[in-house]
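Q: Give me the 3D complex with norvaline.
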Amino acid sequence: TAKSELKDFLHISDFDKATILKMLDRAAEIKALLKSGDRSFQPFKGKTMAMIFAKPSMRTRVSFETGFFLLGGHAIYLGPNDIQMGKREETRDVARVLSRYNDIIMARVFAHQDILDLAKYATVPVVNGLTDYNHPCQIMADVLTIIEHIGRIEGTKVVYVGDGNNIVHSWLLMAAVIPFHFVCACPKGFEPDKKTVEKAQQAGISKIEITNDPKEAVKGADVVYSDVWASMGQKEEADSRRKIFRGFQVDENLMKIAGPKAYFMHCLPAERGVEVTDGVVEAPNSIVFPQAENRMHAQNAVMLHLLGV
Ligand code: CP
Ligand code: NVA
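A: Here is the predicted complex, encoded as structure tokens.
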């Protein structure tokens, strides 16, 4: 299958640069339309989406549900206790049943294999709304936000500070498609998945650096990016991680080292006073709320692409 014609949206690097840029252009176009108050574009009219959530969510749930509705469709929220995929019912059965009622499925799960299984057995498109491995919709929204604020993603320096987690994996897979400079500064032992780092490096498109020195890393950054130190499913490690990650908090001093042009980004939810200070989140160069808003527009463009409308 050509990289522009895949059924599902599971990893950014499944798509080629032209397709990713096309989706981002479309996102900006539909954002402008929706923000103008125009509701005449209803490509999802008569369509339904099933949304499976094995984990909590605010942004993903509301942005998908609202976005699908604003473009004419109806979205169904299935929370952690509803279908209990893999527990009450096997993933391959969930996939085939939901495909018979719905035009598209969005899922947020723990194990990445669950989304791969869902996509394999679903006959309709499956969109990854976060797994333990990655979060592609988030990074699409992030790149849209960077393009809006800086004018481009190509050639910028994005420095992530914190845990080498799902967000980092999606940044690395974006860097395998679009050229920019990506740096991940994390404590020893919390580096991103080695295979994913190699994949991004071997693509030979972007400059990729993994380091344990946040102060050195942020110098000259266009974006300093932070995320929680304990992701969903790791909350029992929160206390021990607070000790290990000391020195990786994005505070006013680190932003000063980054330099005057650096924007602050965070996928949210943020724990102020932990991975980032309140002052950094509230500073004029923090773009965390435009970033959150863009989830909806980026995802609308992804769904339009998958549904071929
Ligand atoms: N950034 C993000 O995915 O937020 P939620 O967990 O609230 O969906
Ligand atoms: N790394 C975080 C992202 C939340 C949007 C988590 O997985 O909990």
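A quick observation: DSSP finds twelve helices and nine strands in the chain.
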